[in-house]
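Q: I have 235 residues here and want to know how they pack in 3D. Can you give me a structure?
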Amino acid sequence: MPRSSSSERVLVIMAKAPRPGEVKTRLTPSLSPAAVTAFYCCLLKDTLALARSLSNVEVAIMCPDSDVAELAQLAGNEVIVVAQKGEGLAAGLTSVFAHFTEHGRRVIAFNSDSPHLPPSVLENAFEILAVHDVVAGPTHDGGYYLVGAKVSHPTLFARDGMGTNSALERLLVNARTLDLSVGFVETFYDIDIADDLTRLAEELHLAPTKAPRTAAWLKQREFTPARSQTEAGEL
């Protein structure tokens, strides 16, 4: 059965069903669509394991309606899978807080390609939400990998979305318009392009237990820090 909704803390993974040509498409110049799909599946499973490693947290997935059945099968019985209302990431984020915020619950939404995050980052995000209206986790490219709130604010994600170069700036503008206080956790990278994949390979080469499925996938394909993008593209 899914975890009890009585938990005061909710972690929601923003995900898609792992289908060729629909996930991590910016990696396809370096990897085949089939390889990207297999890689994304590893990322998602390791991200789910990260979320489950936290105590006293309800874990859920928010996804397009067409992906619910496939993701429910992949995630297993302990994870709630919810269909978002509307299309696109901004609609998905709006759906997260409309669905899960109630009675002051602290809700964190984060990327499905984040297994390399230390659990302490997620714990810290929940702590920040105790004293701020919104928490955000910036990425190095101007986006954000994590956002949390205790109340649904339908306009917070207007013309917004995780992962784009100006997403964090737009989020902060919207938060100021709504007079919401914002706290921040550490800046991290997400996995969008070949350089991000190389960085992840370097990190997991040193600490494979952070994301064992992803680390094994990279090792099996001999993707090492010294391997070139051209070689990776031959998969």
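Q: Anything worth noting?
A: Residues 108 and 148 are 4 Å apart (CA to CA). The mean pLDDT is 89.
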